[in-house]
Amino acid sequence: MAKRALITGITGQDGSYLAELLLKKGYEVHGMVRRSSEEKFERIAHLQGKVQLHQGDLLDQFSLAALLNLTQPDEVYNLAAQSFVPTSWNQPVLTGEFTALGVTKMLEAIRHTRPQVRFYQASSSEMFGKVLEVPQSEDTPFYPRSPYGVAKAYGHHITVNYRESFKLFAVSGILFNHESPRRGLEFVTRKVTYNVARIKMGLQDTLPMGNLDAKRDWGFAGDYVDAMWRMLQQETPEDFVVATNETHTVRELVEIAFARVGLDYQKHVKIDPAFVRPAEVDLLIGKYDKAREKLGWEPTVRFKQLVEMMVDADLERVKAGQR
Ligand code: NDP
Ligand code: GDR
Hints:
Layout: E1 4-8, H1 13-24, E2 28-33, E3 52-55, H2 61-71, E4 75-78, H3 87-90, H4 92-113, E5 118-124, H5 147-166, E6 169-175, E7 178-179, H6 188-200, E8 207-209, E9 215-216, E10 219-220, H7 221-232, E11 240-242, E12 248-249, H8 250-260, E13 269-271, H9 289-295, H10 303-319
Parallel strand pairs: 1-2, 1-4, 2-3, 4-5, 5-6, 6-11, 7-10, 8-13
Antiparallel strand pairs: 9-12
The structure holds NADPH dihydro-nicotinamide-adenine-dinucleotide phosphate (NDP) and guanosine-5'-diphosphate-rhamnose.
The site of guanosine-5'-diphosphate-rhamnose has 21 residues, from α6.
Enzyme class: lyase
EC number: 4.2.1.47
GO molecular function: GDP-mannose 4,6-dehydratase activity; NADP+ binding
């Protein structure tokens, strides 16, 4: 019989890639979606009829238990979260409700209705924040720098705790930044590649940016969802860092993206304090040796290739009058 998976956050960047991967592997895929006045399922439009969508919300404990009863999953991937770091300073309580307590709600639902489930929690390199070690591994202590990072650290620890307290097969993937042409427009990679395409097409001239000196370890989302799946196929539940072990500045990102369309970023990028954060994460670089050794996982897309893939995709979209 086909394995069944339930994905929260299926309408997000990672949810769409993970749903594709699991369908390819022959899974029956169920996704939890929030109701809104207008359905915006662009990222999974091409999977319509292949995935089964159900209403539910991380804030509503019973909706989670009901969904587990209805779908009887073998694997649950908890990707839903308020995931944009700047919003977490404007809505810190809501971020805590979704991104921190939402994890406990899901774990409680699993414990009481389907304890045999294999559970994946989407943890983040933002938990390392003001880093205490370079590069960062599974053993590096956390020092989060935003309400988002703090909420993710809670989600991480409660996942470990439920594994140790109730013997659940619960794992936490500590994923570094991962991007794709499906990335939300407010995140820095997509913001840059989309605006570069618009500037190239003569639709605007300037790009307002925040801190160009921040360094990130950027990989491709398609690679990272494969690591999530591999974590749930292990014999014993363990946590893993997933990264590329390369770090680049936002300035390099901007430079490569503009160069792809034959432009000089210095003529278009303007620093706007509105995009500078109250507290910054200056340097992230992940050590993924454990994932390589135990999961047999390697990133397949490197930084320059990733940025150019995103610029090319955005150029096509802008030419076609799409977002
Ligand atoms: P997105 O922001 O693209 O997607 C977030 C998803 O969560 C959307 O489907 C959204 O639904 C859903 N969601 C938000 N709040 C709720 C709620 N209360 N109830 C139900 N669903 C909700 O994120 P990504 O795909 O980029 O990331 C997936 C996960 O991985 C997130 O938890 C993120 O924090 C984490 N992560 C991401 C990294 C990255 O670089 N991308 C790195 C490390 C961790 P809707 O469409 O309705 O808004
Ligand atoms: P991040 O991603 O905060 O690392 O979280 P984001 O792309 O938003 O920022 C990366 C870095 O770029 C700097 N920056 C800007 N960022 C944005 N968004 N807009 C700008 O104009 C801008 N200018 C400079 C930021 O200061 C920052 O240093 C992402 C999210 O996907 C999280 O959910 C996830 O957990 C982490 O990655 C790993």
